[in-house]
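RECORD TYPE: inverse folding
INPUT: structure tokens
STRUCTURE:
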């Protein structure tokens, strides 16, 4: 270009070839004359003029073009390595090293959007029902619900400063009541024995071997029926045990209660406790459940110190019961212990060779994936760090035919569900970059971490075999319908998790100024969230219409709760932009979600945590009707 045609002559151009560190930090022009080692500012201040920071690299080309190229590259990698984690630079470098691929040098000055922003909102802890402070992350379901209610005014959040789902100490009242009962029994004429006294602390195995000991009203037939109910209604959702092996051990225990493994006995007691919820025709009192749980509490201290598969199974079943009964903090702790024991016995690695039967090898795989999924949904709900590092795990999909699970779920269901669990874990790791305070393209555009996760989810859905799609549900066998609906619920929950902060930002902006022009990236991501929120609510309604909605032991109500929160924000945005009449579809879906929650909350067997979620759905449904 002819220098005479320049708009700004060369001697007056403001751009500097290389700026010193001091001028960069002050964000000012570094005025350095040709041939001089120091700039004018450093000369005047009498400081060393040094240039050590790497010059910022400029990206040429449109964001859309780069996004398309990135999407194609991701598709190529995912086609070769379906389980590859591309959610962060560190994960991609770890993947490259594991494959022996030469990588470019790390650019420390580059933007790593997976790291916490310096402008992140101040994080606080919340008191639980014990008065103890608990950390709940800013991307948690609790804060999302709290912020959503804040859009209706300060009165809507009144009384929500305490996290009631972290209840009182799970080891206090019930165990104390049982200990008092035991002491009273000893005081009134029963001969004292070493076994009796030890039973108040850590009992020997024979003291607690029979859950029906001293309880003549619980006969063997009732216990048998509860075991059947567990495997009929809970096992497929939470495949922790191997039914054939468990039943064999159960029959042995029925004939000879002595010498049973404590971890197995702990699992049996949890099976009975959980099965009580799904077998209303079997009358088991709350007092009986409390006595069984007290025995579980007495066994848990010894189970935690075991390094075996039965210990992992017992901890997971105990954690599920605690989770459902206002003890999500204790559930979190036991789940973490189960993860550590799983690491210790190597079930997170396929390469670990041990003298095991084919059934046991497949059971290890399935137990790992059940534990992984159970931990990740807690991580997503609490926004806490996971105990599981995906790059350290290498577990294939278990063979359902060997485990006898073929009749409970369609072919390949486990493989596609496991892939979804991995994507959920990736979504949880980047959730802090998707807070409502971040509304620029760095966090919402095609190059953002959220967009990368959504591309993974889109590829997952597009690659599903025909027999696992939503369209195949009505023609599937009845036993396959619930697993399929839960699989797609898990998918839409993950989509909404990664995109709901964009929808909240949209609602907040419109609530302040309904005429403000919204960024296209924010609109696109929030529309994706709305679509998944609606589908999530519809899937729970479908489950209920088929008579397969589980409101007493699994995540069905939580999915209904998550979908309802999205619907509320959708209604707020639609009313602000287009008027009340335009929100009729989402209002109807929210009304159905509230009716579903209200209907099942009448069940006296619904545990506390699940009942609270159901109550919230009914409350926000009523609040939105007034909007």
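DESIGNED SEQUENCE:
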């Amino acid at each position: 270009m002819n220098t005479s045609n320049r708009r700004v002559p060369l001697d007056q151009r403001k751009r500097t070839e290389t700026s010193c560190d001091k001028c960069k930090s002050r964000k000012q022009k570094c005025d350095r004359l040709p041939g001089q080692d120091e700039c004018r500012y450093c000369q005047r201040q009498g400081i060393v003029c040094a240039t050590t920071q790497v010059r910022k690299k400029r990206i040429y080309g449109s964001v859309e073009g780069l996004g398309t190229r990135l999407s194609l590259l991701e598709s190529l990698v995912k086609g070769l390595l379906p389980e590859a984690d591309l959610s962060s630079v560190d994960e991609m470098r770890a993947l490259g090293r594991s494959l022996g691929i030469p990588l470019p040098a790390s650019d420390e000055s580059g933007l790593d959007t997976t790291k916490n922003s310096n402008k992140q909102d101040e994080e606080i802890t919340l008191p639980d029902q014990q008065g103890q402070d608990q950390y709940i992350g800013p991307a948690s379901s609790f804060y999302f619900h709290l912020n959503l209610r804040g859009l209706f005014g300060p009165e809507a959040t009144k009384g929500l400063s305490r996290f009631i789902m972290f209840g009182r100490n799970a080891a206090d009242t019930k165990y104390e009541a049982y200990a008092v009962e035991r002491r009273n029994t000893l005081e009134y004429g029963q001969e004292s024995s070493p076994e009796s006294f030890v039973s108040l602390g850590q009992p020997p195995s024979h003291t607690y071997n029979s859950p029906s000991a001293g309880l003549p009203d619980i006969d063997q037939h009732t216990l048998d029926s509860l075991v059947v109910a567990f495997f009929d209604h809970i096992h497929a959702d939470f495949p922790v045990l191997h039914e054939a092996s468990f039943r064999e051990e159960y029959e042995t225990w029925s004939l000879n209660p002595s010498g049973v493994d404590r971890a197995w006995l702990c699992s049996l007691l949890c099976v009975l406790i959980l099965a009580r919820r799904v077998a209303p025709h079997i009358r088991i009192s709350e007092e009986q459940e409390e006595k069984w749980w007290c025995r579980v509490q007495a066994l848990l201290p010894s189970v935690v110190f075991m390094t075996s598969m039965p210990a992992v199974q017992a901890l997971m079943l105990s954690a599920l019961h605690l989770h459902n009964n206002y003890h999500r903090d204790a559930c979190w702790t036991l789940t973490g212990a189960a993860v550590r024991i799983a690491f210790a016995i190597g079930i997170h690695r396929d390469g670990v060779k041990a003298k095991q039967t084919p059934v046991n090898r497949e059971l290890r795989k399935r137990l790992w994936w059940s534990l992984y999924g159970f931990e990740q949904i807690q991580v997503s709900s609490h926004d806490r760090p996971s105990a599981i590092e995906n790059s350290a795990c290498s577990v294939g999909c278990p063979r359902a035919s060997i485990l006898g699970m073929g009749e409970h779920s369609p072919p390949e269901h486990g493989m596609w569900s496991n892939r979804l669990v991995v994507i959920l874990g990736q979504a949880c790791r980047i959730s802090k970059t998707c807070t409502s305070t971040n509304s620029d393209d760095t966090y919402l555009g095609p190059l953002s971490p959220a967009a990368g996760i959504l591309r993974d989810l889109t590829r997952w859905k597009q690659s599903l075999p025909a027999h696992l799609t939503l369209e195949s549900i009505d023609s599937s066998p009845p036993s396959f319908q619930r697993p399929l609906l839960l699989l797609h619920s898990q998918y839409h929950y993950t989509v909404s998790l990664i995109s709901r902060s964009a929808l909240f930002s949209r609602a907040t902006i419109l609530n302040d100024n309904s005429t403000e022009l919204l960024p296209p990236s924010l609109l696109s991501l929030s529309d994706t969230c709305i679509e998944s929120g609606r589908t999530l609510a519809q899937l729970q309604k479908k489950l209920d219409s088929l008579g397969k909605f589980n409101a007493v032991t699994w995540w069905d109500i939580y999915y209904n709760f998550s979908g309802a929160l999205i619907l509320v924000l959708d209604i707020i945005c639609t009313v602000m932009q287009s008027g009340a009449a335009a929100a009729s579809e989402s209002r109807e879906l929210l009304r159905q979600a509230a009716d579903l929650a209200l209907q099942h909350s009448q069940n006296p067997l619904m545990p506390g945590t699940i009942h609270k979620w159901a109550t919230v759905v009914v409350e926000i449904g009523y609040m939105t009707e007034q909007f």
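NOTES: Residues 173-403 form one domain.
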